[in-house]
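Dissemination and training. As part of the outreach component of the grant, students in the summer workshop were shown how a complex can be specified as a set of sequence lines and then modelled as a single object. The example used during the hands-on session is reproduced here so that future cohorts can follow it. Participants entered these lines:
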Amino acid sequence: QVQLQQSGLGLVKPSQTLSLTCAISGDSVSSNSAAWNWIRQSPSRGLEWLGRTYYRSKWSTDYAVSVKSRIIINPDTSKNQFSLQLNSVTPEDTAVYYCVRQGWYFDYWGQGTLVTVSS
Amino acid sequence: DIVMTQSPDSLAVSLGERATINCKSSQSVLYSSDNKNYLAWYQQKPGQPPKLLIYWASTRESGVPDRFSGSGSGTDFTLTISSLQAEDVAVYYCHQYYTTPLTFGQGTRLEIK
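and obtained this result:
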C-alpha cells in the first residue's frame, strides 16, 4: 500500500519561499511507471495542478505555466521523497497543498498541508 | 489547456434516489491509439484529500461501491450514483489526464434533500 507523508511549514511570509516534502512508502520515487505531483486547493482556484517529477531513464519535470517561473520540484532518491519549492509567495498562494502519486490518473494522495501566506 | 466544466454546481437528492453529475471537456480526452478516455472522477469529504472513484471514464476503483458508475466518451461524461446513501454527501470532481496541464472540474456539491 502506497503512503505519502507530507511535512513542512504551514505559515510563510510574503516574498519568501514555501517548502514542502513528501515521503514515499510502498513505492519508489525512481519508479519507471509513476510520476510524483504537487496539487493545491483553494476556494478561489479549486484544485490546481502545479507540477510533477518522474523518472524514465532520466529525470524530468513538468510545471504549470502559472507557477513555472517560481517552482522547483525535486526528487531525493536517498530518502525516497520529493519536494516542492515555491518562491516569492503572495497571499494568493495560500492553499492546501497535496503531494500525489500518478500512474495514469492520481491514485494516492498525501494528507494535505494548509499553507498560509501572511506577515 | 483543457477546461473541465461540471454541472450542476450543487445538487440535492433524496436518500435512495439517483444522482447524476455531468462533466464536459473543452476538447476530446479520447486517445485514438488505445481508445481510452483519460477521465477520472474523485470524491472529496471535508478535511480529506480527494478519493479516486472512477478512472478511464468508467472503471470503478477497487473498493468503491457499485452504486457509483461512470459513462461517456470524447468530451461528455457522467458520474451516476444509483441509490444515494448518507455517506455519499461530498464534493465530486472530474479530472482529465490526457495532457498537461492536468486539470479538474470546479466540483459539484452533493447534498441530501
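Chain B has no helices and 13 strands. Students were then asked to discuss how this feature might be tested experimentally.
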